[in-house]
Write a structure and sequence with these properties.
Elements: H1 3-8, H2 10-34, H3 44-48, H4 50-68, H5 73-78, H6 80-107, H7 116-141, H8 145-159, H9 161-176, H10 181-211, H11 213-218
Helix pairs in contact: 2-4, 2-9, 4-6, 6-7, 7-8, 7-10, 8-10, 9-10
Length: 219
Amino acid sequence: MTSTNRRGWLVPAGLVLLSVVPVAAGAIRLNELTGGADVTPANARFFAMPAPVVVHIVTVSVFSVLGAFQFAPRFRRRKPGWHRAAGRVLVVSGLGAGLSGLWMTVFYPLAEGEHVLLTGLRLVFGTAMVASIARAFVAIRRQDVARHRAWMTRGYAIGIGAGTQAVFLGVGLSILGTSSGIVRALLMGAAWVINLAVAEWRIRAGLSRKADPRRLSRA
C-alpha cells in the first residue's frame, strides 16, 4: 500500500475509532435487554419498550461503521458496486437510526439528571439527520452526485455525533467535574455542531478542489 493510499484510509479509520464507544455502549445495552439484567431506574424505560432502543442501537451501529468506509475515495472509486450497495444500506439504517431516535425522544421519559434542553436538541438534530438522508436519496435519484454526497455527509456527521459526545462528556467531566443537567445538554449540542462544522468544511473543500483550474487542466 502506497503512502497516498494509507493517507486515504486515515479518515475512515478515525471515524471507525470514533464509533467504538457508542457501538460498545449499544452492545452492552443489548446484552442487558437480552441477558436478563436487573431493572433499575436508569434502564426501566428501555425494558418497558425495548423495540425502539434495539432498532436504534443496531441501525446506528451499522450506519456509523459502514458509513466510515464511504470516506475512502480510492476504495469507493475502485468498488462502485460496493459503494452503491452500501449506500442503500446506509439510507435505510440512517433513516432507522434517526426515526427511532426521534421516537425515543418523544415517548421515553428523560433519564435522571438530563435537562429538558437535551430533548429539544435531540428533536432538532434528529429531524435534521432524517431530512439530510432523505434529501441525499432524492438527489441521487436525480443523478445529482455532488448534492447527494453533501447531504449524506451532513447526515453522517449528525449520526456519528454519539462518538464526539462521548469525548466531549469525558472532557467536561474532567474539567467541570460534572456531565449532567444543562452541562450535559450543552456539551452534546456542541458535539453535534462541531461535527456539522467539520462536515461543511469537508464539503466545501471538495467543491474547491473540483473547481481548481490546475486539477481541471490535468484531467
